[in-house]
Write a structure and sequence with these properties.
The complex is a heterodimer of chains A (230) and B (155). Chain A is built from 8 helices and no strands. Chain A is an all-alpha fold and 230 residues long. Chain B is elongated and about 80 Å long. Classes of the chains: A mainly alpha (230), B mainly alpha (155).
Chain lengths: 230, 155
């Protein structure tokens, strides 16, 4: 975690892993067949990443903390008037961050309970029954469309900053960037403690374990009926 | 008077036979029930093939399930999607999209793919090993998905 960087290493790792696994989940979900098993694994991984990021939003570095970057409508209006000076997520971008996190969480969560009416179901589908599982499947489709729209907006905004405002937002997400210390915007304080990272990683792992059905009562081995005599 | 009675009788017989003729056709509700049941049987067979390719492999069981799948695939399921069954309730509300009834060419193509892969699965089950069955089961699943994506309501 370099001193003076805008984004700390866990935030950057989270971001690019989410991109990679998200694309993997979308592609395997669209192809189907036996790849649907990977779709399920990617989904669990995404859930873990999101939980990690949410915890990191409380224990992580300055620029990663919700309390620091999530602002009210007045701050958003001020930003739109060009009066915002700061490091990290701007007040408008903060809303996009929240929307993306919420939708991706909803997508991962609905997948846990969904079924594909072919030969696959989320690890928690049996908890809610077929009808609710079908509804989860419907949400899973709906949220996917919303996510595609948000992702297009996200990339569009970055292209807008690059082309129109002449600011490269991609690079800092790769190398961390360099926070310019100005009077209005002090250099971000970085979480130095490895403990914060371990806490977030631990909570995320626990969430994945539970989501994968790890807390369900161990029942009899799956319906592998003995071959019938007739 | 007598003539008029005979006319009435004739009209009655004609009306009744018309009713009988209609009853010889299965009701839409029955057709929807049958097709929903057919897909449930496919689900049963799919579930046991999946259990076998992911767990302990029992060839006899897989052959039975694959043959049953192929039999249903070749049974002429299209007859259960007769006009008049666009909407309605069988065991539950139909989940078919109205588009299925407007694009017989596309349905035929997707159904043909399903039949082809189901037949192939039966062949592979008879001769192949667990890995081969698993791969072919995946191919079959893709043809299910192709039709679901196109013609099955998910909400």
């Amino acid at each position: 975690m370099e001193h003076g960087a805008i984004w700390d290493l866990p935030t950057r790792l989270f971001h690019w892993l989410l991109v990679a696994v998200g694309i993997g989940a979308a592609v395997t979900g669209k192809i189907g067949g036996n790849l649907i098993e990977w779709h399920g694994r990617f989904g669990l991984l995404i859930l873990g990443l999101i939980v990690f990021r949410v915890v990191w939003g409380f224990v992580g570095s300055d620029t990663a903390r919700f309390a620091r970057f999530v602002r009210g409508p007045r701050a958003v209006a001020a930003y739109l008037r060009g009066e915002w000076q700061g490091v990290g997520h701007n007040p408008l971008g903060a809303l996009a961050v929240l929307a993306l996190l919420a939708l991706i969480a909803a997508q991962a969560a609905s997948g846990l309970f969904a079924n594909d009416d072919i030969a696959f179901q989320g690890p928690l589908a049996d908890l809610v029954g077929k009808e609710a599982s079908d509804r989860a499947r419907a949400w899973h489709s709906l949220v996917f469309d919303g996510l595609i729209a948000l992702a297009v907006l996200h990339v569009g905004a970055i292209v807008f900053y690059l082309r129109v405002k002449g600011r490269n937002l991609i690079r800092p997400m790769i190398d961390g960037g360099e926070a310019r210390a100005t009077g209005a915007a002090p250099r971000p304080h970085h979480a130095r403690s490895i403990a914060a990272f371990l806490i977030a990683a631990l909570v995320a792992s626990g969430a994945v374990y539970a989501a994968a059905g790890g807390l369900l009562p161990a029942d009899a081995p799956p319906a592998q009926c003995a071959p019938a005599a007739w | 008077m007598k003539f008029r009675n005979m006319l009435l009788l004739a009209a009655g017989v004609a009306a009744a036979s018309g009713t009988f003729a209609q009853q010889a056709q299965p009701k839409p509700e029955t057709l929807i029930k049958w097709r929903q049941s057919a897909y449930q049987v496919l689900a049963w067979n799919g579930a046991r093939i999946k259990a076998n390719v992911e767990g302990q492999y029992n060839k006899d069981e897989v052959v039975r399930a694959a043959n049953s799948t192929a039999a249903i695939a070749n049974s002429g399921l299209g007859a259960l999607f007769a006009p008049g069954t666009e909407q309605g309730k069988g065991w539950h509300d139909t989940t078919v999209k109205p588009e299925l009834f407007k694009d017989p060419k596309k349905v035929g193509e997707l159904a043909g793919n399903f039949v082809r892969e189901a037949n192939e699965l039966a062949k592979v089950a008879a001769t192949g090993d667990q890995a081969a069955v698993k791969a072919q089961f995946g191919n079959l699943g893709k043809t299910c998905k192709a039709c679901h994506d196109e013609f099955k309501n998910k909400d």
